[in-house]
Amino acid sequence: MSPLIAPSILAADFANLQTEVEMLNRSAADYIHVDIMDGVFVPNISFGIPVTEAIQRHAKKPLDVHLMIVNPDPYLEAFRRAGAENISVHYEACPHLHRTVQAIHGLGAKAGVAINPHTSVSLLEEIIAEIDLVCMMSVNPGFGGQKFIENTYSKVSRLKDLILKKGAATKIEIDGGVNEQNAQKLVSEGADILVAGSFVFSSADPVATIARLKSS
């Protein structure tokens, strides 16, 4: 089965954002991945609600919003109004994770939980059946263009085993360093959604690159 592809708009040309979104509309992408960074939870600042709204105005693909921020709860409704269909929060940033997941579902969005490279998948055992996706970071969050962490393969396999054990329908999303060299192996280990930023937007033909990832 082909993976779902979610190009990360963080790697796009921000001076031509509408053109970049329209290119993704024409492509085989399934989502537009939107990375929100606050400069506190991660050492970088990206953009927020107004830019998300601007992307949504032109997007024909659903927005997959990844909140790399501390205390995401006060912003969930605003991002949902801005067009987020998936909202992922970080396990490490949510002391009351189940409440946050309930709040996302209450807004009519799909709820995801993101985990950093050092966070064990076993920590998701009590919530895995309640969430729609796990966004597994395969680089340290905060910057695009980083090298893929090889331990991710075995981590995907362990997470897939947990999902099956719990009888959950949770999808596994891989975020960071995804390219044509590792995509097929990630899918074979159990990945359902591949996020690709620099690999897509720095290629000579992003539409063709997305199509090749889709055939992984």
TrEMBL record:
Role summary: Catalyzes the reversible epimerization of D-ribulose 5-phosphate to D-xylulose 5-phosphate.
Q: What is its EC number?
A: 5.1.3.1
Please indicate if the UniProt record lists Isomerase as a keyword. Answer: yes
Q: What's the name of the protein?
A: Ribulose-phosphate 3-epimerase
Q: How is the cofactor bound?
A: Binds 1 divalent metal cation per subunit.
The residues annotated as the active site are D35, D175
**Protein's organism:** Algoriphagus oliviformis
Question: What are the names of the required cofactors?
Answer: a divalent metal cation; Mn(2+); Zn(2+); Co(2+)
* Molecular functions per Gene Ontology: D-ribulose-phosphate 3-epimerase activity
Q: Which residues form a coiled coil?
A: none
Q: What is the lineage of its organism?
A: Bacteria, Pseudomonadati, Bacteroidota, Cytophagia, Cytophagales
Its UniProt entry gives the catalysed reaction(s) as:
D-ribulose 5-phosphate = D-xylulose 5-phosphate
